Amino acid sequence: METTDVFKFISKRKTAFIGSVGEGYPVIRAMLAPRKIENNAIYFTTNTSSKKVRQFTEDNRACVYFYKRGLFRYQGVCITGKMEICLDQETKDAIWRAGDKMFYKGGATDPDYCVLKFTCQSAECYCDLKTETVTF
User: Fold this and answer.
1) What is the per-residue DSSP string for 86-126?
2) Cβ within 8 Å of residue 29, ≥6 positions away
3) Cα separation of 11 and 25, whole Å?
4) Does residue 55 contact residue 20 with C-beta atoms inside 8 Å?
5) How far is the C-alpha of 42 from the C-alpha of 35, rounded, in Å?
6) N-term to C-term CA, the chain
7) How many CA atoms within 13 Å lie on the side-chain side of 127?
8) Residue 44 in 3-state DSSP?
9) Does pTM top 0.85 for this prediction?
10) 3-135 belongs to which CATH class?
11) What is the pLDDT of residues 57-115, one digit of tens each?
């Protein structure tokens, strides 16, 4: 499997699971699908005031998991890397969608709106009882 195959797979998923480290333990959260995939980076939106933003500020090690469960086939991709909290207006504007106004009343300049930029380092891909590692 190549990195392009990994990105093609995750671009079709509607849910992502993001892992952070909180108080010494792994913490997993379900997130909406990535807003943007560019080079080796995956972009998500979230609340600046969220606990995960505080956790990533303290420890930027992260993982993101995507899966597809079929009737007879299960596929999963666990990507490890580093998470960056983007508060700059240029990045926030680039990721913003009109429907976000429902969550962030102040629009793209809302102080509680931020972007999480996850930079991929390696992935463990599982399919058909086989596991393969991909390096980005």
Assistant:
1) E--HHHHHHH--GGGGGT-TTGGG-TTEEEEEEEEEEEEEE
2) 17, 18, 19, 20, 52
3) 28
4) yes
5) 8
6) 12
7) 14
8) strand
9) yes
10) mainly beta
11) 999 999 999 999 988 899 999 999 999 999 999 999 999 999 999 999 999 999 999 99
Place of tokens 């005031």: 49
Which residue's entry shows tokens 């933003």?
A: 53
DSSP state for residue 48 in the 8-state scheme: T
What type of residue is 18? I
Residue entry with tokens 């797979």: 9
pLDDT in tens, 20-32: 999 899 999 999 9
Closest C-alpha to 11, from 64, 52, 73: 64
